[in-house]
Structure formats: C-alpha cells, structure tokens
Amino acid sequence: MSLGAAVVSVLATALQYLTQQTDLTYWPDLTVRLAKTFIASVVGTIGADAFDVFEFDWQRALDIAALATLAALAKGLLARGNSGDGGNSRSTPSTLPTTSYLLAVKRQA
User: Fold this and answer.
1) What is the pLDDT confidence band of residue 45, given thresholds at 50, 70 and 90?
2) Using one digit for the tens of pLDDT, what is the confidence trace for 82-94?
3) Are the beta carbons of 45 and 60 closer than 8 angstroms?
4) Rounded to the nearest 10 degrees, what angle do helices 2-18 and 26-48 cross at?
5) Three-state SS for 94?
6) Which of 75, 2, 13 is nearest to 43 (CA)?
7) Is the whole model's pTM more than 0.90, yes or no?
8) Closest by alpha carbon to 72, among 40, 46, 24?
9) Within a 10 A sphere around the Cβ of 61, how many other Cβ atoms?
10) What is the rounded radius of gyration, in angstroms, for the C-alpha atoms of the chain?
11) Phi-psi region of 84 (alpha: psi -120 to 50; beta: other; left: phi over 0)
C-alpha cells in the first residue's frame, strides 16, 4: 500500500515540477499538496487489494485518504508557523526552512 502511494506521490510531484507549477503562494501550494496526498492515499489503498470495482471497500479507502489529508493539512499549517515579522515574509507549506524550500522550487526570498 505504501509503495503504491509513494509512486503516485513521486509522479505527481514530478509532474508539478515538469509543468513548472511551483511558484504558488501558500494556500494554492498547500491545496495542491493536500490533493496529491488524497490521490496518493486512495491509489495506495487500491493497490493494496486485488482491485475489483464492485467489491472494493471504497468507504475504507476514502476514510484513509481523508485521514491522511487531514494530517497533511495539520502539517502544512504547523509548517506555516508565525514568523514574527508582521506577515512580511513569504510563508511556505513545507517543513523545510524557508530558504531551503525556496531553493528547491527556485524562488527568490
């Protein structure tokens, strides 16, 4: 299950970087991350079972995806933190230090 979710997550992130959709402000970037988490979780759950659309436990898959997405939301909100500069710094949805994150997405602080 986790291998399938990891593969989907890597592919979604690669697609995001290839299409250069990395220069997003905080909320759109967090929304993209939450969507990737939700999709990766659902696909990972599907990959864990011998998939049969009529017998697959969709409720369980969606419950797991919702829980993973809520955890990702909490992580993103905690990563935003409070810079203490009156809101003048650019927030990121990453738990990386801001300068490291900006280097990763090639944005200037």
Assistant:
1) confident
2) 544 444 445 666 6
3) yes
4) 140
5) coil
6) 2
7) no
8) 40
9) 18
10) 16
11) left
